[in-house]
Automatic annotation (TrEMBL):
<protein>
    <recommendedName>
        <fullName>Hydroxyethylthiazole kinase</fullName>
        <ecNumber>2.7.1.50</ecNumber>
    </recommendedName>
</protein>
<dbReference type="InterPro" id="IPR000417">
    <property type="entry name" value="Hyethyz_kinase"/>
</dbReference>
<feature type="binding site">
    <location>
        <position position="117"/>
    </location>
    <ligand>
        <name>ATP</name>
    </ligand>
</feature>
<keyword id="KW-0808">Transferase</keyword>
<comment type="pathway">
    <text>Cofactor biosynthesis; thiamine diphosphate biosynthesis; 4-methyl-5-(2-phosphoethyl)-thiazole from 5-(2-hydroxyethyl)-4-methylthiazole: step 1/1.</text>
</comment>
<keyword id="KW-0547">Nucleotide-binding</keyword>
<keyword id="KW-0418">Kinase</keyword>
<keyword id="KW-0067">ATP-binding</keyword>
<feature type="binding site">
    <location>
        <position position="190"/>
    </location>
    <ligand>
        <name>substrate</name>
    </ligand>
</feature>
<feature type="binding site">
    <location>
        <position position="163"/>
    </location>
    <ligand>
        <name>ATP</name>
    </ligand>
</feature>
<dbReference type="InterPro" id="IPR029056">
    <property type="entry name" value="Ribokinase-like"/>
</dbReference>
<dbReference type="Pfam" id="PF02110">
    <property type="entry name" value="HK"/>
</dbReference>
<dbReference type="GO" id="GO:0016301">
    <property type="term" value="F:kinase activity"/>
</dbReference>
<feature type="binding site">
    <location>
        <position position="41"/>
    </location>
    <ligand>
        <name>substrate</name>
    </ligand>
</feature>
<comment type="similarity">
    <text>Belongs to the Thz kinase family.</text>
</comment>
<keyword id="KW-0479">Metal-binding</keyword>
<keyword id="KW-0784">Thiamine biosynthesis</keyword>
Amino acid sequence: MTLQLLNTLRDQNPIVFNIANFVTVQDVANGLNALGASPIMSAEVQEAESMVQIAGAVCINMGTLTTQQVNQMAVVGKLANQYHKPVVLDPVAVGAVPYRKQVALDLLDKFSVDVIRGNAGEIAALADIDWQAKGIDAGAGQGDVVEIAKRCAQQFNCCVILSGPTDVITDGKRVAKVANGTPLFQLHVGSGDLLSSIVAAFAAVSPTAIYDAAQVACVVLAGAGELVASQMTAARPATFAIDLIDRLSLVSVQEIQAIAKLN
Ligand SMILES: Nc1ncnc2c1ncn2[C@@H]1O[C@H](COP(=O)(O)OP(=O)(O)OP(=O)(O)O)[C@@H](O)[C@H]1O
Ligand SMILES: Cc1ncsc1CCO
Ligand SMILES: [Mg+2]
């Protein structure tokens, strides 16, 4: 795993095609842009093939799905496989809403994904493990998050990022953990959505080493948030969100390296 991938990303400025949710779309676009990627959002199935062709990677976020959008997701996912573009799936709230879990399972049946990024409640649901998920949040489940993430990765033959106070990254065999971050992430809705899209950005510049790309994405976002929090004297969620975007644009490989808690 090399943090130099951050400089590669900034040099290459990869296009990341997002099927976004309408709650956090602007945060995701600005966060990607600040980091050094080139975001594009589309909700139109007629342009799916062009979008996939111009993109370096695709991020499919289930946050505010509609029947029309689920159809678009299936078309885009299949095209991404056909054009060998990495795909990240963010299965928002699949632990809390049975319909969403069924949609996610149907999508995972129709095309292969490179990374599933979700919180503990979402990853446990996909791995068929009991967990008390709560809406879009991880909730209060109990269990071994490493085992849950590994089981999900093995089931869907992909990398899994189970995010939270410690991010667990696994390809089903290898496991890495990122212990950076700040509880302020939980006070800003969409931190997870941004992480998923940042994973896609790093996958775009490291398509043959997705497991490495996933780790770099986790440590860069959590590290940038930690640096912002270290300069705040009180918890200010709105200020945090703005400062995070600034920090994503300014942060250097050396600054992340100095604080990285990755093992
Ligand atoms: N308590 C915490 N301490 C440190 N970092 C955290 C904490 N909670 C979340 N994070 C960080 O927040 C980011 C988003 O992860 P999280 O698991 O909260 O996603 P999510 O539940 O999908 O969020 P959202 O629904 O708001 O998009 C990750 O980078 C993770 O490391
Ligand atoms: C609040 C919310 N509701 C659906 S998606 C979303 C943003 C977090 O994913
Ligand atoms: Mg989420």
